[in-house]
Amino acid sequence: MAIIKTDQLVTLDNHINNEEFKHPGASGEFTGLLHNLTFAIKIISRDVRRAGLNDVLGMTEDTNVHGEQVKRLDEHANETIIRIMQNSGRIAVMASEENEEIITVPENRKRGKYVLVFDPLDGSSNIDVNVTIGTIFGIYKKITDTGGVEDVLQSGYEQVGAGYALYGSSTIFTYSTGKGVNMFAYDPTVGEFLLINENVQIPQKSTYYSVNEGNYNKWSSGMQSFVDYLKIIDKDSGRPYTQRYIGTGIADIHRTLLYGGIFLYPSDMNHKNGKLRLVYEANPLAFLIEQAGGRATDGKNRILELKPKNFHERTPLFLGSINDVLKLEEFLANENK
Ligand code: AHG
Ligand code: MN
Ligand code: MN
Fold first, then answer.
1. Residue 179 sits in the same domain as residue 255
2. Are residues 36 and 74 in the same domain?
3. Residue with the nearest Cα to atom 18 of ligand 1?
4. Would 121 be classed as within a structural domain?
């Protein structure tokens, strides 16, 4: 992986503008959309950093469409993205984890040709304990005239861009427009994201696995056997693997992108499709992992080729270094033999 020191002073804005040159015929609308989105990320980052001070921590009385309690910071991040993007003139329609219905652009505002799907704050159960949280997004081109549900139900391979922000020890912004993955760190003293990793490649040899192992007894036998296998001592293959689980999906996947290994959120006896959402969690992450040379499947099928029927639907998700994901698939395929 090419590591660029921040003293090269390549800003995210420069980078986005330069990426536009690689796409012949680009109108600048996509570039504008990314600029608007990174503005929203800067606002959310500021508010996450101030959360304790502003008393935005803690539960609201609302529950989201999944019946989960929504934290105030989730709502705030959601509203920030919606407000900025509705005013951007680039958006046809949006879908968010926090909104039951699609989000349209008011009649009196300009509409654009892009479709944005997002999880405004991922890892919300970690907000109150000061553990890393993030924002995940995917971008499509609209396929209907006016912008409707069909637009947010496109398969993941149709994404023209995807990325995430991570509000950790620093704020990181990672994105891809289908020509590799690039990573930036925010320097709050100058208000800019600076390039830190160019053309990120996921390590293919690694010994990390990331899963909520508390669910072990609810898993299928193939899933259990795979995790048992990772723990068998075998020097040649680097086992036992090291277990890491933050419980903020985007933070676990950020580590997987940089260190390699496998992230797993399987189905279990109570949740036949696992927990993570296909449209605004799994698809953007699968897009990034594939762009970095990794693999992302539901245990059988490529995530990016699944056809969503409902934009809040869930999917089992396995992603990471190619060989680790292939090995998992082998265990799942053999479980009923
Ligand atoms: P969100 O905060 O957007 O609802 O997502 C939470 C998700 C995801 O971040 C993480 O991978 C997963 O929940 C953790 O689930 P468990 O607590 O079941 O391990
Ligand atoms: Mn989430
Ligand atoms: Mn969320």
1. no
2. yes
3. 212
4. yes
Pocket test for ligand 1, best of 64, 98, 122, 210 (most atoms within 8 A of CB): 122
Same-domain pairing of 29 and 169: yes
Task: Report CA dihedral (316, 322, 326, 328) to the nearest 10 degrees.
Answer: -50
Q: Where does 168-306 show beta strands of DSSP type E? A: 171-176, 181-187, 192-198, 208-210, 242-243, 262-265, 295-297
Residue 181's beta-bridge partner residues? 176
Lowest mean pLDDT among 6-20, 115-129, 156-170, 275-289: 6-20
Q: 217: CA distance to ligand 2 center in Å? A: 24
- 289 class by beta-carbon count within 10 Å (0-12 exposed, 13-18 middle, 19+ buried): buried
- Could you tell me the pLDDT band of residue 2, with boundaries at 50, 70 and 90? very low
Q: Is the pTM of this model over 0.90?
A: yes
Same domain, yes or no: 162 and 304: no
Q: Count the helices and strands in the chain (H runs, E runs).
A: 9, 16
The residues lining ligand 1, judged by C-beta closer than 6 Å to any ligand atom, are: 97, 119, 122-124, 212, 247-249, 265, 275
Q: What is the pLDDT of residues 37-96, one digit of tens each?
A: 999 999 999 988 887 665 555 555 566 677 665 558 899 999 999 999 999 999 999 999
One domain, residues 45 and 68: yes
Ligand 1: distance of its center to the CA of 246 in Å?
9
Which of 46, 19, 21 has the alpha carbon at shortest distance from 35?
19
Q: How far apart are CA 292 and CA 202, in angstroms?
A: 6
Q: Which pLDDT does position 5 carry in this prediction?
A: 61
* Residue of 128, 246, 248 to mutate, ligand 1, most atoms within 8 A of C-beta: 248
Nearest atom, ligand 1, residue 250 CA = 9
